[in-house]
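To: structure desk
From: M.T.
Subject: fold request, one chain
Message: Could you run this one when you get a chance? Sequence is below, nothing fancy, just the single chain.
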Amino acid sequence: MAEDPIYTDDVKVGIRRRVGIKQKIRNYDCRSSLSRCELPKRFRGLRIPLIVAIDFMWILIAWGGVIGKLFNDSFVEFIKHYTNWNWAWNAIYYTVDFIVTLLPNRYSEFNLLMTYFWMLTCNNWFVFVLVFPMLLSNPGTITDNFKSNGGDFDPGVVFVADRIFHVLTIVVWFFYFMLRTPDLIAIYNILFKDQWISRHKSPWDLAHYGIIWYIIISAFYGPMFFFTYYNAFDFQMVYQVSTPKWTGMVIVVCVTILSIVFPIVFLSPIIQRKQENIDTKSWVTNEQDPSMDDVDAYLADHSEIKTKKNV
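Reply: Done. Structure tokens follow.
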């Protein structure tokens, strides 16, 4: 009979590290009950189907609104209004999200949430908030459409349309954000947790503050969509408002902080230190190395990697 192999501690440590790496790769690629390694298993929960349903519903509504406005107004008139820009951005984002959510891996979805989700978030809040100073400065943007004032619509129709175009985007975003929260927490945990925890060992090493750099970058590029519009058109002339530009800038800065900086801080390892509420069956890698008993079991099942000690 062949003699059982004997392993030195060095060999066991090396194999232990190898097993740990294998486990991390397996956990990252096959995210358990919501995994995409096997598509049928991926839909055992309600969260992903609900995300797909919201995406599909909003694709129909958003593209319908964009196309309807383009047919009703000229293209030049369409692009003059920031609300139309935001609706077009919503249509594009949810269309892309619908596609990547159905892909057999989550890398594209990972990148979408990391890069463009916060741009969508702050621009939806810009539309929701900026409409109030606009109406205070020029209520005619609403009342001029009343039939009693020479417009084409009844007051009820005007108010409903106003709520749809300025509020519905934020309502849909809220439900989408609630469903995506576990994914966002897991993403930040994977990317930044180890860096943030180890910052005390070398506090002057800027590499440990990746989450801080991410927040700063997100806060700068998040409003980029708005500033593109701001530099292309004079909003005071388009909306016939007298609101000072500095007031608009203060509102934009405050909305950016409240809609991007605070949520990321709350969802990131800065606040979520123990990460107790992360779904361990989702994206999160297993940071624990296997025990020596696990190594022995692994060696017993994987004879091809066994290495005999030279006696």
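Reply (cont.): The first helix runs from residue 9 to 29. Let me know if you need anything else for the meeting.
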